[in-house]
Amino acid sequence: MAVRPFPGISGAFAGRYFGTEAGSSQIMRQLIADRPRNVWESAEGWRIIAQCLTFVDQTRRFATPPGALLGGPLPPGQHLLPARNRGPVQQVFSPDGARLACSSTDSRIQVWDLATYRLHSPLEGHRGPVTALAFSPGGRVLASGGEDQTVRLWDMENSREIAVLRGHNDVVLAVAFSPDGELVASTALSDRGVQLWDVQKKASRALLHGEVSTFTCMAFTRDSHTLITGDEHGAVRLWDVGSLKQKTMVPAHEGWVKGLAVSSTSETLVTAGNDGLVKVWDLVEVSGDRRRRQ
């Protein structure tokens, strides 16, 4: 099994998202392959990025707290987006790179138009800090999770709430859309599983039961048939979405898996953990499905 660790970040990764978009992991792999020493041993800026990393492939922009600070194209060209709340908690680009959504500790979600750097009307509905964000593949819907134990869906064309999904018993840690746009997966602290929501019906489709207390992060493969999760014990697990059964488990990190990203080809997985390591995995070898390379 091909695993390439990249040490050198002092302390744990604080961000629950670590390049969650498919394009993000491609840029991560390029940066690591081209300049591993410069990236991981460079100065404070990269440590800040590691705490809450969001990349978008089309524009080569990245966002970091606080603010957020955008660079595009890298490295010159920076724009400071002044936050009108008490600091970003999570941030995510739309798939086309046209918008940046940032959550905050005051329950609001801010969305910027990145062509004009204009701030849209805030998305309001959560009763407490918003702790997880994810755009749908087409960028028309934003999913959010919060300390109020809810997952909410937002129509981005009209900046309005279209669904409140209830079923968690603690703070929501992560949300993720399937690439086909049919499902939203969400997980919460001490939930012992992952909720799968039907986007069209705006209702629960299934509950994926786990053997650990807390799943901390997740991502779908390109075909939407496999869900990859990280958990509190440092394990990465692959699940069959149709049967809801675990396909394989790999010990990945010491402590929480704080973030993971799947490449657009579903051949590479990048994970980050509380042990301060980033690891690059051959997902074909992990899954044992060599048909992906045929």
H and E string: EHHHEEEEEEEEEEEEEEEEEEEEEEEEH
Rg over CA atoms, rounded to whole Å, is: 18 Å
Q: CATH superfamily membership, which one?
A: YVTN repeat-like/Quinoprotein amine dehydrogenase
Helix content: 10-25%
CATH architecture type: 7 Propeller
Describe this structure in words.
- This protein is mostly beta strands and 294 residues long.
- The protein has one domain (3-287): Methylamine Dehydrogenase, Chain H, CATH 2.130.10.10.
- The protein is 11% helix and 45% strand.
- The chain has four helices and 25 strands.
- The strands form six sheets. Strands 6, 7, 8, 9 and 10 form a five-stranded antiparallel sheet that branches. A four-stranded antiparallel sheet has the order 1-25-24-23.
- Strand 2 (54-56) and strand 3 (61-64) form a beta hairpin.
- The protein is globular.
- The chain starts with a strand and ends in a 7-residue tail after the last helix.
Give a brief rundown of this model.
This protein has helices at 22-34, 36-41, 44-51, 283-287, and strands spanning 3-6, 54-56, 61-64, 69-71, 78-80, 88-93, 99-104, 108-113, 118-119, 123-124, 130-135, 141-146, 150-155, 160-166, 172-177, 183-188, 193-198, 203-209, 215-220, 226-231, 235-240, 245-251, 257-262, 268-273, 278-282. The protein is mainly beta.
